[in-house]
Design a protein that fits this description.
Layout: H1 3-24, H2 31-38, H3 43-49, H4 52-76, H5 81-98, H6 100-113, H7 116-140, H8 144-148, H9 151-169, H10 176-191
Helix pairs in contact: 1-2, 1-3, 1-4, 3-4, 4-5, 4-6, 4-7, 5-10, 6-7, 7-9
Amino acid sequence: MSKQSSAETRERLIEAAAQTLRTEGYAGTSARTIAKAAGCNSALVFYHFGGVDPLLLAALDHSSAERMAAHREAAAKARTLEELVEAAITIYRTDLEGGHITLFTELVGASIARPELRQEIVARAEPWIEFVEQTLDRVIGGSPLAMLMPPRDLAYAAVTFYLGVNLFTHLDADRTRTEALFGLAARVAPRARLLTLKLPLRRGKES
């Protein structure tokens, strides 16, 4: 197998794994179902990735890399808390429509029965916590709100909330309650403007 054909096979398997996990769920995803979707032999799942779970994690990594690049660009445009909330709403809708959250939540659910997945999932959540922390620190750092709610703690809460709200979206078929929650955040953000004003640096006393 040439390097090019080997790389192409890996890409097909990653794409097929993501699609199968989205449509069939973790319980319905196997080397056979992935290979069928990719149009190749199921033995190649083990040849290239060593198993189904490593392949699913590779699919999650691929999706995360694409999302991180896009979301960094979107978040970089936010200069105020209001703009940050607007960016978060756009990110939520994009992730939901793109199916990334399904990949992540299916693997989180699988980790309950497969403890070996837990450490892998936690490791992949950390870059997102850091991303949110850096964004919050840029927007509200040095403000009373940041003193009340440190960006690191707020970032962890935001990622935890984000995972939870996307899990609940599967139960809230028409998404009205989820959308209402984001609407509430959009209304509250302007009222919190005073808390996001950066405090002036103290100058030393004149001699």
